[in-house]
Amino acid sequence: MRKIFTTLLAVLLLGPFVSAQSIQIVLGPDEIGQNQLWTITVTVQNERLRSFDNFPDIEGFTKGGQSTSSQTNIVNGQISSSQSVIMNYIPQRQGVIPVPAFKMKINDQVISSSGKRVTVGAPVQSRQRDPFRSFFDRDDPFSTAPTEYIDIKEDAFLAVTTSKEEVYVGEGFSTVLGFYVAEDNKAPLYWHQLSKQVTEILKKIKPANCWEENFNIENIEGERITIQGKTYTRYKIYQATFYPLNSEPVTFPSVPLEMIKYKVAKNPSFFGQNRQEDFKTFYSKPKTVKVKELPPHPLSRQVAVGEYRLDEKISSTALQTGKSFSYDFTIAGEGNISAISKPELNNSAIFDYYEPNIRQNINRSGNRVTGSKTFSYFIVPKEPGEYSLGKDFKWIFFSPSKKKYDTLNAKAEVVVSGESLKNEVIESADPGSFYDRISLADNTLMATADDRWLKYTVNVLILLILATSAYLIFKK
Questions:
Q1: Which of 157, 206, 439, 470 has minimal CB crowding within 10 Å?
Q2: Which residues pair with 91 in a beta bridge?
Q3: pLDDT for position 8
């Protein structure tokens, strides 16, 4: 009977919080003593408290400072979080103080409060003098014995897992840092300063010799998985796909995660404190992924690694010399999309190629990074005829699944009509042959400006020398 009553009471007490809005303003009690604080609390459920307006000024109260709190709970595999900021108000007098209706902008949403009337009475006595407090604060109201707490063994662990144990240089592998809680776990566990801890963990866990594609986990949500026939709820704390930049092994060190773990009363009572806060630190095991070199190839240090296909788009296949057309060379698939480079085009007597515009799209979903990279070219044909763009547009990559190099060749074919333009550039830039310009050249010797200045300078020096010599002769 006691268990049924306790369960019903818990449902009644917790019900309002389960159905609470995601953002809410909670006003303090209707009645307080003059020596007590009255509060306005802003609470955000399952979301980060990013911004909020100033709390209202209330005539009859003085602001007494604000405090903040945050909490993330795991209860029976369900996760919930909340962040709150609390403004304390000090009453200036006794009597009824009206709190007008007001609005606050919280996380870019305008939240309204209808206000209320607060009755401020005489100062209340210290709570230690409350004759009922000693009764209800006991672990067992009918016993004076101290409460004994026991530590329930948790069935949970922290782990770093990778999708592959060995990869090629440039080949991606997914990495997850997760906290696993068994379905039959009985130990009460809660997050503790998770954001701060994750920041420190990532400083240690991210390998320096890899390109990272971060999945940017904002909300930690549980997902049911089975490990060796046992059901767990996994909470992904961090997830990324890494692409090794060299053949050095990728190592993930052991990292700690501190959780709040409660000890429970050995003989729980209805009115007593039935649990005691404690802390438990979980450590992940070190993890290493081996990296091997790509097979020998002239471009082994340059090619992208992944599984790719080619998509093409051309504005027209019937062309005229001198008139440009557009051509999209799109590389799509799974791999390090950011590292995909443009096709290497050689000088062509048939086409003029201009630098492409580049468009990139990356999707991070599940344990895969997929996407596409499009190179949009403007091309001007110079010679009439029938041509395949595959002669110039080729892109080499390495396929880990096939364990060999592969090439994407353009399939587009065009028909060019019109006059040949390959000699136009030469004719427009040719100033005539050397012999043709001989008859136009002037073979008269002419002094330059520098030559004339030199002549004047020498004459002046000669005159100075003669004048000095004459002066010395006459003086003697």
A1: 439
A2: 61
A3: 37
Within a 10 A sphere around the Cβ of 162, how many other Cβ atoms?
A: 17
Task: State the residue range of the domain holding 217.
Answer: 156-292
Where among 264, 292, 320 does a domain terminate?
292
Q: Do 280 and 308 reside in the same domain of the chain?
A: no
Burial (Cβ within 10 Å: 0-12, 13-18, ≥19) of residue 14: exposed
Shared domain for 256 and 308, answered yes or no, is: no
pLDDT of residue 68: 65
SS (H, E, C) the chain: CHHHHHHHHHHHHHHHHHCCCCEEEEECCCEEECCCCEEEEEEEECCCCCCECCCCCCCCEEEEEEEEEEEEEEECCEEEEEEEEEEEEEECCCEEEEECCEEEEECCEEEEECCEEEEEECCCCCHHHCCCHHHHCCCCCCCCCCCCEECCCCCEEEEEEECCCEEECCCCEEEEEEEEEECCCCCCEEECCHHHHHHHHHHHHCCCCEEEEECCCCCCCEEEEEECCEEEEEEEEEEEEEEECCCCCEEECCCEEEEEEEEEECCCCCCCCCEEEEEEEEECCCEEEEEECCCCCCCCCCCEEEEEEEEEEECCCEEECCCCEEEEEEEEEEECHHHCCCCCCCCCCCEEECCCEEEEEEEEECCEEEEEEEEEEEEEECCCEEEEHHHCCEEEEEECCCCEEEEEECCCEEEEECCCCCCHHHHHHCCCCCHHHHHHCCCCCCCCHHHHHHHHHHHHHHHHHHHHHHHHHHHC
The burial of 122, by beta-carbon neighbours within 10 Å (0-12 exposed, 13-18 middle, 19 or more buried), is given as exposed
Q: State whether 257 and 361 are in the same domain.
A: no
Which ranges of the chain have pLDDT less than 50?
1-21, 74-77, 127-142, 426-435, 440
Residue 373 is assigned to a structural domain of this protein:
yes
CB 105 within 8 A of CB 15: no
Beta-sheet pairing, 38-45 with 173-182:
unpaired
Say yes or no: 244 and 313 in one domain.
no
pLDDT value of position 372: 95
* 306 φψ region: left (φ > 0), alpha (ψ -120 to 50), beta (else): left
Domain with residue 36: its CATH number is 2.60.40
pLDDT at 424: 66
Per-residue model confidence (pLDDT) at position 90 = 86
Residue 462: inside a domain? no
Same-domain check for residues 326 and 243: no
Are 277 and 351 members of one domain? no
